Amino acid sequence: MTYIELKDSTKKFKTGDTEIIANDSLSFSIEKGELVVVLGASGAGKSTLLNILGGMDTNDSGQVIIDGENISTYSDKELTTYRRHGVGFVFQFYNLVQNLTTKENVELASEIAKDPLDSVDVLQQVGLDDRIDNFPAQLSGGEQQRVSIARAIAKNPKILLCDEPTGALDSQTGKQILQILQDRSRNEGSTVIIVTHNSAIAPIADRVIRMCDAKIQKVETSGQPSDINDIEW
Ligand SMILES: Nc1ncnc2c1ncn2[C@@H]1O[C@H](COP(=O)(O)OP(=O)(O)OP(=O)(O)O)[C@@H](O)[C@H]1O
Ligand SMILES: [Mg+2]
């Protein structure tokens, strides 16, 4: 069943006199429960796409249909509800609240969700059970990234949007995180979208969307995604 569908979605940014097309007429569809990898070089428009899918930014034209609803016509209030209940977002640069502990950062997000998971359980899954009372400044980059991942997962969302979720992680910890994300899709039916420039991650996906210069270059589906233990980077 098609769960996410983009039809000619375009987003431009204007700075002074120059206009940049960040997403140029993107069209694709994603099935419910798929693990999707969006690949593309720096500046290809991946974060812009993810922000639009997550209701954090709006496009200029085209449709963004999520579970049958075109969110590109949503009001700010409708977008807030959509973000709050429908989406878990792993930010490229973590966006943790600096004066809250690890546990509080995760709870802040899960408290507003409808059917959240236990914060400490999720922190345990990402290997941070001994860091729950630390503040972000006391954590390494990779640990902060894992708090950000735990925060998104603890909301137990239908859609998990992850912007370079393994960017700061060594390959072993990265694989542990990818396994958690794949389990969310396989066992809980969450639709998981991972944005990365690391093409080594692509084989684990059910669908790979390649972006280049603000456009979709290619969409491939895989009947037999690789085991996470079999990839290497
Ligand atoms: N708020 C903004 N204002 C102006 N230009 C922007 C803004 N956000 C993104 N852009 C531009 O849009 C293009 C796409 O940016 P985007 O962040 O989506 O790329 P990306 O694929 O995520 O890159 P990276 O892999 O480096 O994170 C870039 O040229 C970028 O400079
Ligand atoms: Mg980006």
UniProtKB/TrEMBL annotation:
Keyword annotations of the record: Amino-acid transport, ATP-binding, Hydrolase, Nucleotide-binding, Transport
Family annotation (CDD domains): ABC_MJ0796_LolCDE_FtsE
UniProt EC number: 3.6.1.15, 3.6.1.3
GO cellular component terms attached to this protein's record: membrane protein complex
ABC transporter domain span: 4-233
GO biological process terms on file: amino acid transport
UniProt cross-references to Pfam families, sorted A to Z: ABC_tran
Transmembrane segments: none
Domain of life from the UniProt record: Bacteria
Top-tier EC class: hydrolase
GO terms of molecular function: ATP binding; ATP hydrolysis activity; transmembrane transporter activity
Family the entry assigns: Belongs to the ABC transporter superfamily.
Name listed for the protein in its UniProt record: ATP-binding component of an ABC superfamily transporter
